[in-house]
Structures are given as C-alpha cells and as structure tokens.
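Open question from group meeting: does this chain pack into something compact, or does most of it stay loose? Before anyone orders reagents, we agreed to write out a predicted structure and look at it together. Recording both the input and the output here so the notebook holds the full record.
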Amino acid sequence: MKDIPEQIRAAYKEELAANKTPVTEQDIPLSYEAITSEWLTNVLCKSTAGAKVESFELGAPDNGSSNRRKISIRYNAAGTDAGLPEKVFCKATQDLANRMVLGISGGLHGEVTYYNHVRPLLDIESPFAYFANYSPRSFNSIIILNDISDEVESFCDHNTPMNKRRLESQMELLATMHSRFLNSPELTTVLASLGTWPQFLKRTEAFGMEAGSNKGFRDAEEVIPARLYKRYDEVWPKTIASAEKHDQLPQTFIHNDVHLKNWYCMPNDVMGLSDWQCATTGHWSRDLAYTIATACTIEERRNWEKDLIAYYLEKMAEGGATGISFDETWNHYRQQMLSVLTWWTITLAPTDVIPDMQPRDITLQFIKRIATAMDDLDTMDVE
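Structure tokens returned:
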C-alpha cells in the first residue's frame, strides 16, 4: 500500500509525457479534450456495422471526486438509424488527486466493476454504462453513462424535499440490491475483487483518513451536539470498531456512499442511485444508516426512522432475505452511524492529496444530521 501513491505519481508523469492519442477501446483519454471521433467510434459503435461518430461536442467541466463532463455526439446514417446515444455523461480520473483517492481506496475498481458486472444483474433505477475501463497502474479511467438529465425530475441535494414515499422508494432500492446479493455465490466470483468495507476504510489511511476525519470533527463543533463533541477522543477508535463489525456479519454488495446527493428523483417519487465509486462488499446496515441519516431532516428522521427500517426489512424479506429481526437491525443501524460521519468529516477537512469534493454548506448540513442522529441514538455506547 505504501508504494501505490508513488506508483500513481510516476505513471501519471509518464502518461503526460507520452501524450498518446486515444484510438482503440484499450486507450484511456488523458483529458476530455484529447478524445477523438475515432476513439468514440471504437467504444460506442463496435456492435453496429458501419456506424461511425462524425463529430462531438464537450459540455462544461464539473470536477469533484471525479472529473465529469457531458458529450453530445453526431453519427453517420448507420449510427443514427441504430439509435446510438446522442448524449452521454462521463466520469473520469484525469487529475492526479482524483487518481490518488479513487486508486488507493479501490473506489475506481469498485465503480468499473459495478457498471461492467453488477448493474446488469440488478433491476433498480440506476444509470448504466456504454463503456467503463481503467488502468490498474496509473488509475486513469473513463466511464461513459447514459445521460438521464432529461428523464429525472431533480438531482438531489441537502435541500431536496423528501416525502415519506420518496424515502420508502430508497428503502425499496436498497432492499432489492442487498437481498439480491446477500450471501450470494457472486461474493466469491464477480464481487470478490471489490474487497470488504473494513478493507476499503483501511486503504484510506494512505491519504490521511484518520487525521482528516479528526480535524473535520473538531472543525464542525458548531453543528455537533455538545454531548457527542466531548467524546472526541473515542470517535475514531469506535469508528474503526464499527467497520470491523462487518467482518462478523452476513455479507452483501453495498453502495457505501448513499448520501442524498447521490440520489435522483424520477416521476412518481421513484428514487434512483448513482456514483458507485465506493462500492464494496459488507453488511447492509451501513447503507441503511447512511441513507436515512442524510436523506431525512432531523425531525423527519426522528419521526420516521423506525417505520423506514421496518419497511426496509419487509422489502428484504420479499427479496428472500428473511428472518432478520428489527431489534438486531436497530442496533446495527445505530452503530453504523460512526463510519457514516467519518465520510463527511474528512470531506470538511480534506488532506493535501484529496480534491475538495463538496461545498462547505452541504458538508456541514450532513454532518449536523449524522451527528445529531448519533446523539439521539446513543451510538457511542452501542457494542
């Protein structure tokens, strides 16, 4: 693990020096500006005889944990007649900081694995990929997704109103995914390379997760309940313990970063989930706690969390995951708030090698919701 950051830096410099023009589908563009019509033809038209990309136009840059951009595409007659996508949404790791975070953590491998191998097995509202690939040495990558912007009612943020039906839709999606892979054979095949949630968290130590999370916790004092803030010295050790708990529990496929900004609203209050770059195997309770804590306002969570958990368990049972007690789930839900918090305290105080991923107001709002949940639920005292 200690050698991976230096490996990424060296490979990044080599790729910039070589400045290779992408042509084949094995080539990964160094920037969006480096993309060629020939490369797009090879990745988007390979299954359509005679189809060819004639021209394309890049949308505005949007950078965070990944480098995001839309592309509008014009095909020849064969491509147009075949209905090939005229608009796509791309995610890439073109900057060194993005490669560091998503390469070291395993997040890049997780997202590419999701779109290439997991998404086809799930009947959920989520984007799909026309192409997804990365370099295991440099962690340069690109994922080309269907552009859903004309279909959604809204992409969520901390101000998105979440009525109970939308929250139940989130529970339905999570339960469909979790029950599908709970103790499944795929855990030893297509999912095996993802590693577990405790392993994922361990890898983040290479870019300063502990120090950044601790600093973020201290810096967020204004939104953390005083009773919890006084127990600062206990937070990181208990966070590690909450992650390690996963190794003792039934395993499934988990998204791992289900904060409200990664959800979108479709018509009729159907919720969709995107951004799969933290996907691993683990216990479903982390996704459950993370979704409820960030999607609900504090009062909504207090009023509805037990109803939502009961509804989630009902849908898990419909998917074949039976015999899970509410009391057992309630304890896991309470405890998993710890690692949910650390995902946002590090965002408030990113280390030198981490990109600035979220606006401060959104980060503080999510920290407030999660920390208040921890205080309400006596999370620090769950064993």
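Observations to bring back to the group:
The chain has a mean pLDDT of 95.
DSSP finds 15 helices and eleven strands in the chain.
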